[in-house]
C-alpha cells in the first residue's frame, strides 16, 4: 500500500508548531490512516509547496490495555521514518489531546521511548511541560573526522540519538547550506551507525544556550528541536558550562525550558522536564488530491 494509498474522504488535521518545529497532527484512533500507509502519508503530506508541509506527522491513537497511558502517540519524520521520540511533537500531541478531550490536563502519552507525562495547565494557553524518561548514556569527547577537519562532539540519547557540538559563534558557519552540510556529515558518520541529530550550541550565560539543529529524518536544519534542547542542556552541564534549569533559545528565537537533577558522580540526569509552546496554526481537512 504505502505510497499508492489515498484516503477515500478528506482527513481532518491540525497544523501545530512547537517553538518552530511544525507538525501535521491527526486523530488516528479510528484508523483513518492504515498502518501500512503511514510512512507514505508522512512523506507526501510533509512536502512543502506541494502539500501541507511539516517537519513530521503526529498520530494520536488508542493506548493499549497495559500501557498505563491516556493515549498512544506516534511520530513519523518527513522522510517516512518513525522517531521513537520528538520533544516538540509530544508537546503538540499533548495539547491536541487535551483540547480535543481525548485526555485530561495531566496526562500520559504512550511513546516508543516509554511513557511521557504531560501537564497542560490551561488548554487556552499554548504552554506545556513534559516529564520524560532519563536520557543516556552520555559519551563525551568523541572525535569525528570530517572533510572540513576534525571536530569533537558529545553524544547522548534522548529517546533518539544526538551529537552536541559546542562552538563559540553559532552564526559562524556561514550560509545556511554550510550548516546543513556539516549536519549531514555528522548524521552519517560511522561513529553513529544508526545516524544522529546534530545540535550546535553556544553558551550565553550560566543558564542560557543558543542552539541550531540538523534533524535526522527531516534531513535538514529545523527551527527547533525539543529532544535536542534536552541533549544540549545536559551536555553543557556535564562540561561545566551551565547548571539547570537551562533556557535553550532555538533557531526560531523561541525558548525551550529544560530542567533536571544532575548527578556528577555518574554523569547522569534524572527527573528531566521539557517546557515549551504548542501553538495551533490551523485546523482543516486534507483532501486526497493534496497528497
TrEMBL record:
It is an enzyme of class 5 (isomerase). This is Diaminopimelate epimerase. Keywords: Amino-acid biosynthesis, Cytoplasm, Isomerase, Lysine biosynthesis. It comes from the Bacteria. Substrate binds at residues 21, 77, 87-88, 197, 215-216, 226-227. It catalyses: (2S,6S)-2,6-diaminopimelate = meso-2,6-diaminopimelate. Catalyzes the stereoinversion of LL-2,6-diaminopimelate (L,L-DAP) to meso-diaminopimelate (meso-DAP), a precursor of L-lysine and an essential component of the bacterial peptidoglycan. The active site is at residues 86, 225. Coiled coil: none annotated. Pathway: Amino-acid biosynthesis; L-lysine biosynthesis via DAP pathway; DL-2,6-diaminopimelate from LL-2,6-diaminopimelate: step 1/1. GO terms for molecular function: diaminopimelate epimerase activity. Belongs to the diaminopimelate epimerase family. Homodimer. The gene is dapF.
